[in-house]
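Quick review question:
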């Protein structure tokens, strides 16, 4: 009898396996069915234009594991880009609460910091970013993002400190260009408070960091000229056509401050000639004509005619109209020319003076930091027929 029971044992094992398989299969089928139902309800919500409810259902379907980590990040980015940072926070927090490898957790933290920035929670973002030291690539990204945050808040000391602490890991763009610009911002703050010696210290420091920083050169030269140090002011501003010929339009009023005019008109004319050789700025041609005009209208008019052949520019053409009107004797000719000049003036007034070469943002005002893309030193005078 006992032997019979032993014979039945393999049969019992087989039956147990079959029951177990059925039970497991049933579990999988049940789970798949529930998943399909969730997808269907998500789609139904989407069709009914209930985006919030649809996203809740679909987010719930994304399991957190290493395999679909990128899908979670991508979905969160879509939410953040669409202005739904709360939903992105929810996804990133869920990733952080899971048992993912350290590098993926750091990446999720970095993305969560971006969500916080999107809703203006800068302190929370900085708190997360400061802890990202495990992977070097993520650490550098975090450092750059912290610099961006402090720049947005105008915390120049913090931004400068971060650059100083991470100097060896950051590109020259940060250690030279950004650092010099932040020092110029500090100088501007001092200027606004009437602390001119402190402003000068920051500007000289900016030039030690980035000797080609046009902004520091223009600001320092302007301050020195206003204080009566004309020669030193000139020694700085005269570098602009070599370092940044596209920006001479901005530097020109400062150059003018370096001369005691009209007593030094001749010297000023000689310098303008040199600048005109180095830059194709219409502003320089117009300035030269304005100085020549003080001596002789014909001399100024001839100079404009020579230059309009060299450079097609509406602004130079408008000045030519002006001289033609002033020298015309016939009243009908004067009237026709005036009408033409008005048309050209209206056309010039309609165009933007400055454009960001990084993002294309255009404006009538000069910005050292583009308000659209936040890039430094990318906004320049518009060139071409309707530009400088
Ligand atoms: Zn821009």
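Suggested answer, residue by residue:
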């Amino acid at each position: 009898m006992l032997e019979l029971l032993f014979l039945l044992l393999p049969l019992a094992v087989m039956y147990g396996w079959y029951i177990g398989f059925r039970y497991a299969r049933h579990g999988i089928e049940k789970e798949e069915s529930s998943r399909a139902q969730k997808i269907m309800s998500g789609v139904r919500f989407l069709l009914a234009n209930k985006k919030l409810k649809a996203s809740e259902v679909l987010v719930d379907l994304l399991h957190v594991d290493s395999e679909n980590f990128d899908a979670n990040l991508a979905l969160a980015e879509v939410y953040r880009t669409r202005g739904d940072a709360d939903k992105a926070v929810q996804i990133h927090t869920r990733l952080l609460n899971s048992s993912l490898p350290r590098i993926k957790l750091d990446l999720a933290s970095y993305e969560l910091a971006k969500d916080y920035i999107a809703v203006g929670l800068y302190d929370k973002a900085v708190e997360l970013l400061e802890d990202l030291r495990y992977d070097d690539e993520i650490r550098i990204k975090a450092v750059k993002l912290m610099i961006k945050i402090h720049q947005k808040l105008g915390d120049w000391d913090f931004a400068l400190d971060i650059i100083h602490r991470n100097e060896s890991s950051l590109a020259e763009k940060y250690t030279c260009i950004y650092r010099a610009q932040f020092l110029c911002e500090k100088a501007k703050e001092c200027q606004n408070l009437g602390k001119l010696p402190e402003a000068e210290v920051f500007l000289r420091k900016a030039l030690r960091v980035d000797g080609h920083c046009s902004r520091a050169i223009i600001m320092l030269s302007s301050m020195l000229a206003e204080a009566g140090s004309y020669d030193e002011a000139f020694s700085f501003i005269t570098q602009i056509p070599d370092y940044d010929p596209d920006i001479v339009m901005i530097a020109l009023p400062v150059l003018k401050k370096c001369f005691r005019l009209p007593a030094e008109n001749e010297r000023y004319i000689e310098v303008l000639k040199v600048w005109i050789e180095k830059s194709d700025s219409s502003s320089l041609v117009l300035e030269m004509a304005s100085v020549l005009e003080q001596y002789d209208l014909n001399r100024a008019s001839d100079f404009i005619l020579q230059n309009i052949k060299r450079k097609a520019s509406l602004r130079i053409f408008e000045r030519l109209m002006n001289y033609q009107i002033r020298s015309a004797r016939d009243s009908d000719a004067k009237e026709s020319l005036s009408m033409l000049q008005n048309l050209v003036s209206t056309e010039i007034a309609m165009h933007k003076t400055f454009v960001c070469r990084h993002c294309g943002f255009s404006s009538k005002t000069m910005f050292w930091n583009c308000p659209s893309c936040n890039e430094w030193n990318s906004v320049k005078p518009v060139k071409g027929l309707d530009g400088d």
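Why it works: The mean pLDDT is 87. The longest strand covers residues 354-356.
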